[in-house]
Design a protein that fits this description.
heterodimer; A: about 260 residues; alpha/beta; 6-stranded mixed sheet; 4-stranded antiparallel sheet; 10 helices; about 35% helix; about 25% strand; B: about 525 residues; mainly alpha; about 0% strand
């Protein structure tokens, strides 16, 4: 299988002397057409990895290639072949949904002849056609998330990065997004890179997963392989085993130390 | 025993503001008291001693009878709008929700917010009272008169601040619950200061002082202002000036007016507390979403100006986002009103083209900075949209430059042409040449302003923080322009036209350099 994303000792350090290692010598391969999930606790380095692979930030050390393009030398080509739904994305709230998608289309040089139809189709797909001319400031968080997913798809890139794609969606919209991701992978042959905390979604959608903790990749493989590696029964248990968790007895310890009544 | 809730809110409010001072925070109270003591006992009396004769003459004139109420009204109005402006600029409904969810009375929230911010205002009130006492001292006021004068300042200021705090709370709960409301609030925060600036300019250069020397005009002004509580204290101060050291002579008048002022303070405090329970309500009254219309001729023209294709569409999007933010429009209204007032009060009756354009040379850089605004209004996340896109940062800079030019240049052309029209026997050719020149001057300054904005991007969504960044950029742009003007006129002894040419060359060069450096800086932000 052809590796469409390949990282080589990819590192990103912050702070004085680089003491905060957001991503630390990451070695990863994602294959063409697969749906890959990157899991990790808060602050593990998932979003930094996604930003590095989308050329939004530059690595401190190491490099990566995306669709054969080097993220350090061929930034523009990398940006053209990727679509990104960021975890805390920017949004022009003073534009309507249609106008925002027009703006994103223009930013990615989508042909003017294709753009209006694509916008219509995407708005129909996300059930937002009737609100196409409403300013985004009046949208709910879930509706904004749908628009952001649509904006990641607007230039129809071969590789899609979804950072927490369903975190703000209602169950119905979440199911729709899951189905969309499946379709994009199965029928449209897209390579999809998902970062999520929601383990069932990753389990359901991803062909392989990687678990990252404190900037380092601590496990990679299929769900079954990771469960087998950690000698656990579920992905949740495997995740806790690999990244550490709070002991049961510690959960209510904070109450017992109090002498005064609440 | 738990602390009273209003004290908890006051302490929190104090911490929020004091934390902005960084390392001097723990020493702030001592520094403030020390500063005030030095100012009131040494600096203010020394300053006054330079003008003592003029001041004595002023206090015994007709003008003083009207000017003191005007000054008191200006202070009163300023202290009312100060908390309102502060609130409007940093409006967040989430903070109000914290209070609504907690077991605390709305009146305690309001009182706590007021008391928490009071130490900061107290410094300004103390300095003002100290200045006025120093000014009145040469008249021979006795201790009781001085004490009442200081009390008048304190009570008038506290009344105004309390009214402002209550109004700010009402505005915050009214506006902060919708995006449109927040927009209106941010827009209002800037233009609220315009009436006060108008009074100031009228006093400085508009002949207001001369007009008030006429007893009839002075009497009219006093009559109008006498309905305002700020004037009640002013009348007492004026009566002290006419009977220094003899409070008995004006005893009844003092008792009535000062008593009225105290009663007014008590009433606003009581009513404000009552209004607080009405103020803190975040229940939305309606769900409205603004709907946009299909692009008309204006946006089609903008798109054509941007080349019609992808970049044209990008330019249209950026222009829409800019024009739909009311705060941008209010900045334009503010600077145009400011220039109009300057022209009206200080520059009436231009005798030649040089006079008609000189004011613009100093204020068009400010116009350019306010029109450009901040580059990353939506925060870093919005910047990342461009960083993710191929050549995105370059497209952003190009589109923002073009959009800013499309706003700033026509405004500059209109102001220049109108100023030129007031010059006697001006020719059409002169109007066109000077207007054209000022258009390129503002274009150069717009390039410089965008460069500065890129070099020093402000990612905060707080309008107050954004405005502070803009004011720094405005200082740089204005001092560049003024510095070149003074240098070329006084040091190099160049003619007016050559000065304009030198300004153009330097500002364009700086603008292009800053734009290049700023683009690199934005490209490297992570």
């Amino acid at each position: 299988m052809k590796a469409i994303i390949r990282t080589e000792k990819l590192s990103k350090h912050y702070g004085k002397g680089g003491e905060i290692r957001a991503v630390d010598e990451l070695e990863l391969e994602v294959y063409e057409g697969e749906t890959f999930g990157l899991l990790g606790p808060n602050g593990a380095g998932k979003t930094t990895t996604v930003r590095l692979l989308n050329c939004i930030i530059k690595p401190t050390q190491g490099t990566a290639s995306v669709n054969g393009y080097d993220i350090l030398k061929e930034e523009m080509q990398v940006k053209r072949v990727t679509g990104l739904l960021a975890e805390s994305p920017g949004l022009y709230e003073k534009l309507s949904a249609r106008e925002f998608l027009e703006f994103m289309g223009a930013l990615y040089d989508v042909q003017a002849e294709v753009l209006p139809e694509r916008i219509n189709d995407l708005l129909k797909l996300f059930n937002l056609e009737s609100r196409r001319d409403h300013l985004l400031e009046g949208y709910s968080r879930g509706m904004k998330q749908k628009i952001l997913i649509a904006s990641a798809l607007i230039h129809d890139p071969p590789i899609l990065f979804f950072d927490e794609p369903t975190s703000m969606l209602d169950p119905r919209a979440a199911v729709m997004v899951k189905d969309l991701i499946k379709k994009l992978a199965d029928s449209a042959g897209k390579t999809i890179f998902i970062c999520s905390h929601i383990l069932p979604i990753v389990e359901e959608l991803c062909d392989r997963i990687g678990i990252i903790n404190q900037g380092r990749l601590v496990a990679i493989g299929t769900v079954d392989e990771i469960i087998a590696q950690t000698k656990t029964k579920t992905l949740e248990e495997a995740f806790i085993a690999l990244t550490g968790g709070v002991e049961e007895k510690e959960l209510l310890a904070w109450r017992e130390q109090k002498s005064a009544p609440a | 025993m738990p602390l009273p809730k209003w004290l908890i809110v006051a302490r929190n409010e104090y911490r929020i503001r004091a934390n902005q001072m960084g390392i001097i925070r723990p020493f702030f109270p001592y520094l403030a008291i020390g500063f005030l003591a030095v100012y009131v006992w040494f600096v203010a009396p020394s300053l006054v001693s330079f003008f003592v004769d003029d001041l004595l003459a002023f206090f015994l004139s007709h003008v003083a009878l009207a000017i003191i109420p005007i000054i008191m009204f200006t202070i009163f109005f300023y202290l009312i709008i100060l908390p309102i402006t502060y609130t409007l600029q940093g409006m967040q409904a989430e903070q109000v929700e914290i209070f609504l969810a907690a077991p605390i009375k709305p009146s305690h929230v309001l009182l706590g917010e007021f008391l928490g911010v009071l130490p900061f205002y107290a410094v300004a009130i103390g300095a003002l009272a100290g200045t006025f006492t120093a000014v009145l001292n040469p008249l021979g006021l006795d201790m009781l008169q001085i004490a009442i004068t200081v009390s008048i300042f304190v009570v008038t200021s506290l009344s105004a601040l309390w009214i402002g705090t209550v109004a700010a709370a009402l505005i915050r709960t009214r506006f902060a619950k919708s995006a449109r409301g927040r927009d209106i609030g941010k827009a209002l925060s800037l233009v609220l200061a315009l009436p006060m600036i108008a009074v100031m300019y009228a006093m400085m250069g508009g002949g207001l002082m001369d007009a008030l020397a006429d007893p009839e005009a002075s009497g009219m002004a006093r009559l109008v202002l006498s309905f305002l509580p700020s004037s009640w204290g002013a009348e007492v101060i004026a009566s002290f000036a006419s009977s220094p050291g003899n409070i008995v002579a004006v005893g009844f008048e003092v008792a009535m007016r000062f008593g009225g002022l105290l009663a007014f303070f008590g009433a606003v405090l009581f009513l404000g507390t009552k209004a607080a329970s009405r103020a803190y309500s975040l229940e939305p009254t309606s769900f409205t979403a603004s709907r946009v219309k299909p692009d008309g001729a204006f946006y089609k023209t903008i798109k054509a100006l941007g080349g019609g294709r992808s970049f044209g569409a990008l330019l249209v999007s950026i222009t829409k986002d800019y024009s739909r933010r009311l705060e941008n429009l209010s900045r334009i209204i503010y600077i145009v009103a400011l220039i109009a007032m300057l022209e009206f009060f200080f520059g009436r009756g231009f005798e030649d083209s040089e006079g008609a354009t000189m004011m613009s040379l100093f204020f068009f850089p400010f116009l350019a900075v306010l029109v450009v605004g901040q580059i990353a209004l939506g925060g870093k996340e919005n910047l990342f949209i461009y960083k993710k896109a191929p050549h995105g940062v370059g497209k952003l800079v190009k589109a923002r430059l073009l959009q800013s030019l499309l706003v700033a240049v026509p405004i500059a052309a209109m102001i220049t042409a109108l100023s030129m029209l007031s010059v006697p026997q001006i020719t059409i050719t002169s109007i066109l040449v000077y207007t054209g020149f000022m258009m390129q001057f503002v274009a150069a300054n717009t390039t410089l302003a965008l460069g500065l904005s890129l070099l020093n991007p402000e990612f905060s969504k707080n309008t107050r923080t954004q405005m502070m960044g803009l004011m720094i950029n405005a200082q740089v742009a204005m001092f560049t322009s003024i510095g070149i003007f003074i240098g070329s006129q006084i040091i190099l002894d160049l003619s007016y036209v050559n000065t304009l040419l030198l300004q153009a060359v330097v500002i364009w060069s700086m603008g292009i350099l800053f734009l290049y450096l700023g683009r690199r800086r934005i490209g490297r932000i992570e």
